[in-house]
Structure formats: structure tokens, C-alpha cells
Design brief:
Elements lengths: L12 H24 L4 H11 L3 H22 L12 H18 L2
């Protein structure tokens, strides 16, 4: 099965800075909301093993199912294309590093 190539637009420097800034602001706000709501995998597994509470696991499964159906529905409506994107290893390393720092600060 062959995947169609994803057409990406190249952004100039100012647009890239705006996208990165918006991503940082939205990511920080989303992370704060998830942290305050105890919506993390550490809490999920701790609740399963120690308290025998499956509430957070059910929330994760529901979020995964909504995402799977939602992405497929939006792609079918033509809002974006699904395909194989290029692998940006420097961005992946930087993102993993920032994620690790966040996990260390959160105690996870």
C-alpha cells in the first residue's frame, strides 16, 4: 500500500516563530490543565495497582477512541491529508529533551 506524499508549506522565519510561540503557549496551558486534573500515566497505573480504580484508564481509552475517530473523520472531510511525513530527528531529540525536563519537574 502506498501513501500519498504530504504537501507541506514552507514557512518564513516570522511565521515559524509565531507557530512555535503559539505551540509553547497552548502546550503549557494544556499541560497545566492535565497536571491539575491528575491526567497522567503515572497516576493511572498507580490507581490501577494500588487503589484498583480504573477511572483514569477509562478516560485514556475514551480519549484515544475519540482521537482515532476524529482524525479519520476530519481527513475524510478533507480538512487535512493523511500520509507519511518526513522524520525530523533534531526536532524529535529537542522535543524528547523538553519532555524529559517536564517529567523531572513534575516528579514523574
Amino acid at each position: 500500500m502506498e501513501f500519498p506524499a504530504v504537501v507541506t508549506e514552507t514557512a518564513n522565519g516570522a511565521a515559524m516563530i509565531r507557530m512555535m510561540g503559539l505551540g509553547l503557549v497552548v502546550g503549557a496551558a494544556f499541560g497545566y490543565a492535565l497536571q491539575r486534573g491528575r491526567f497522567c500515566m503515572n497516576s493511572t497505573f498507580r490507581d490501577i495497582l494500588l487503589a484498583r480504580d480504573l477511572t483514569l484508564l477509562r478516560a485514556y481509552i475514551l480519549a484515544l477512541l475519540i482521537q482515532m475517530v476524529g482524525v479519520r473523520a476530519m481527513a475524510t472531510l478533507g480538512l487535512f491529508g493523511l500520509g507519511v511525513t518526513p522524520f525530523f530527528w533534531v526536532a524529535t531529540l529537542c522535543g524528547g529533551f523538553v519532555f524529559g525536563i517536564g517529567m523531572a519537574f513534575s516528579g514523574g
